[in-house]
Structure formats: C-alpha cells, structure tokens
Specification:
This protein has twelve helices and 20 strands. It is of the alpha+beta class and 405 residues long. The strands form three sheets. Strands 5, 6, 12, 13, 14, 15, 16, 17 and 20 form a nine-stranded mixed sheet that branches. Strands 1, 2, 8, 9, 10, 11, 18 and 19 form an eight-stranded mixed sheet that branches.
C-alpha cells in the first residue's frame, strides 16, 4: 500500500494507537517510524512505566488493545498527595463500586500490545526503520519520500514524532516553551510492604516524588517512581549504585513501605513545557507530544495524546460519512477547536501546580498543607480532581466513553 487515508509519522504509544483506531473504523493508515523493532520490543523492563487513565483505557478496550493488556497492569484505586512528609494530606478514593482512577503499565507491555495490534490491522501498513526525507502538502494531498526511496501519498499527514517533532518545525508552527531546570529520574524498585494500589505524590521544593503502584512479581511488592530533582543533580543521582539510590529513595519516602530492594535500570530526562500555537496546518494534524508537552506532576502526558487520538478519529469518521476526505480543511478546523482549548487548560493547570509546589520556605509549605487539608474536606472539589485524573472532564469523544464512533 503506497496510498492511505492517513500517513502517520511516529509509531510510539500515541501514533500506533491512532493507526489501530483508524483501522477499527475503516480508515487506512501508513505508519512510518525510524525505530528498530528489536530495540523497541526488548523484553526486559527498562524502568519506564505509564499511568493510563480510566477514560484512555476505555479507548484501548474499544479498539481491541485492552484485551492484550488484561492482567498485566496495576489498578490505581487511591491517590494520596502530601507536602513533604509533614502532617496534612489529600486522599482521592473512588467509591467502592466505582472504576479505578487509572492503571499502571510497564511501557514495554504497552509497546508490545500496540505493535501486535498494528501489525495485525489489515488497513495499516507499518514501515519501521525508515523516516520521511521530503514532505509535500498542498490542497491536492500529501506526498512523502521515505528514506528507502519509496514514495507514499495520503489525504492527511499526522505528526506524532514527540517533543522534537520535525514535522511541526517544518510547518513553521510556533511553540511556547520553557524549561523547569529540573530533571525526572524514572525507574522502579521493590519494597517490603504492599502499596495496596495507592499512588503517592510527595511534594518537595526540588519537585514531586511520585510513587506509582506496579503489579507484584516473583520477588514481591514493587512500585515505579518519577523523582524530580534539580537539573544539576540528575547525573549524580544516576551514577549512584543501587544501594545508594535506594537509601536516598527510602529517605524521601520516610520508610512507609519498609525496606527497598532490587532497583531497576534508571533513566533521566529534562523537564520542560511546550505548547504548539496551533495543532493543524494544510492537510496536517499534530498529536501527542508533538502538540503539547507538560510536567509529569499529574501523570497526564500520554493520556492527553490518547484524547487527541479519540477526537481525531471521531472527526475523521464523521467526515467520511459526509463524503469528505481525511485532510478536508473543515474537519481540521473542528479538531483544532476541540483539542486546542482542552490541551491548553490541562497544560496551564499543570504548570501552575508545578510552580505552586516549588515555592520554598516554611510559610509556603504551611499554606500548601492548609490548602491540601481544606480540599480533602470538600467532596465536590475532590470529585472534580478525580474526574480530571480519570481523563473524564470536558467534551469527551466517543472512544473515551468506550464506544466506537
């Protein structure tokens, strides 16, 4: 297949989900990604894990990916927020008969499930180990030359290459961006006591220490971490041996899960904010990190991308029913209007929260603890926060409700 309704540049967690969702709705896609499948699908845990919000999980179920993940994740049934280890906390606990707030998965499991779904999809042509060398977009369509010399065409081009999207840059789309001068260290370890499906967000002046529940394994109880540190400390933290790293982590946790052991491989990445001024151009749409990148403080990164996918699929499917091709300008205007405001509001709220908890000093900490305790006693406000955590706020596309379009 050298022509498809949609050409997707980037086959990561968002781009591959889009391809599968399009296939399920009768739209064809070509997916181009430079990664080596053997590296991308390495079976060993690399320390990276993601929280898939309950709304995003309904989409994965609706497009047939959820079944492959069944039993491999850990439901998040309780979120506890605190300012350091001082008294005062904010607990988000759904009703007993309510769905979990989200599910934690090792990224390697998400990658495998999505890769298998993409390769099995009859309307998806996956081109791994290749990239676009020239791209032409105009009112007549999209023409792309690939690094293997082949030409592919489509009605719509989707940039899903991540934060440094060359497609976004080539389109001249302005981006608001800044750095937080912090880095996130990601990994996992085992601990003596069960996490009981609780995710912890402990805020320190240097940034949040997030402890996220993973399924038990043969060794015992374990959790993933996203540990924010000052940018100039990240290299030193990564150089620590397992014993030193675990000792520092246990200190940040106050030992509430007991002794730590079996540290996983660890990685670090700089933290920043970016938001594209617009997410469409002539026969072009941006999704996922190509369109927006936020602090991991609220665990909404990949979920914002899945909201992009659900909205775009709904717009394209409804357009097809009206006889419009996937790159029609009025469809792209609808996508821009739908996703532009939502992504900006989530990004702005996340940035505000990041800056609020970064204010140093005892007075600021006391004010935060007061606010946390106050919110803990206001059920409607807590319900709103839980709705955000589940990805259920705003005008939801059908896929996020678990229904096909």
């Amino acid at each position: 297949m050298d022509h498809a309704d949609v050409l997707i540049l980037g086959g990561g967690l968002v781009g591959s989900a889009l391809a599968v969702a399009l296939d399920r709705h009768g739209l064809s896609a070509i997916v181009v990604d430079p990664a080596d499948p053997a590296v991308m699908l390495a079976p060993a845990f690399d320390g990276r894990a993601s929280a898939v919000a309950s709304a995003s999980h309904r989409m994965l179920d609706a497009i047939g990916v959820g079944e492959a993940l069944r039993g491999q994740g850990c439901p998040i049934r309780h979120i506890r927020v605190s300012d350091g280890l001082a008294p005062g906390k904010l607990d988000f606990v759904p009703a007993a008969d309510d769905a979990a707030l989200g599910t934690m998965y090792e990224n390697r499991l998400l990658r495998r499930a999505l890769y298998d779904a993409v390769t099995a999809a009859p309307l998806v042509d996956l081109r791994m180990g290749t990239h676009a060398t020239t791209v032409q977009r105009d009112q007549d369509g999209v023409r792309v030359t690939l690094s293997d010399g082949r030409m592919v065409t489509s009605d719509l081009l989707v940039g899903a290459e991540g934060r440094q999207s060359p497609t976004r840059e080539a389109a001249g789309i302005a981006v608001a961006r800044w750095q937080y001068h912090h880095a996130a260290i990601v990994g996992a370890f085992h601990h003596e006591r069960s996490h009981e499906n609780v995710a912890y967000e402990i805020f320190y002046p240097a940034g949040p220490f997030a402890l996220l529940p993973l399924p038990d394994d043969a060794v015992g109880h374990r959790s993933a971490i996203v540990w924010t540190v000052a940018a100039d400390q990240a290299a030193g933290m990564l150089k620590l041996g397992d014993r030193g790293f675990l000792a520092e982590a246990e200190k940040s946790m106050g030992g509430f899960l007991g002794a730590l052991s079996h540290a996983s491989p660890r990685a670090s990445y700089p933290l920043g904010f970016h938001h594209a001024a617009r997410v469409t151009d002539t026969r072009l749409v941006l999704v996922g990190d190509a369109a927006h990148g936020i602090h991991p403080i609220a665990g909404q990164g990949v979920n914002l991308g899945y909201r992009d996918v659900a909205a775009l699929v709904e717009v394209l499917v409804e357009g097809r029913r009206l006889g419009l091709d996937a790159g029609d300008a009025q469809l792209l205007r609808r996508y821009e209007a739908w996703r532009g405001l939502d992504t900006f509001m989530v990004a702005a709220a996340t940035d505000t929260l990041t800056r609020l908890f970064a204010i140093p000093g005892r007075a600021a900490s006391a004010v935060r603890r007061f606010g946390i305790s106050a919110v803990d006693r206001i059920p409607p406000l807590k319900d709103r926060f839980m709705s955000e955590a589940r990805g259920e706020s705003g005008d939801l596309p059908k896929l996020l409700l678990g229904a096909t379009v």
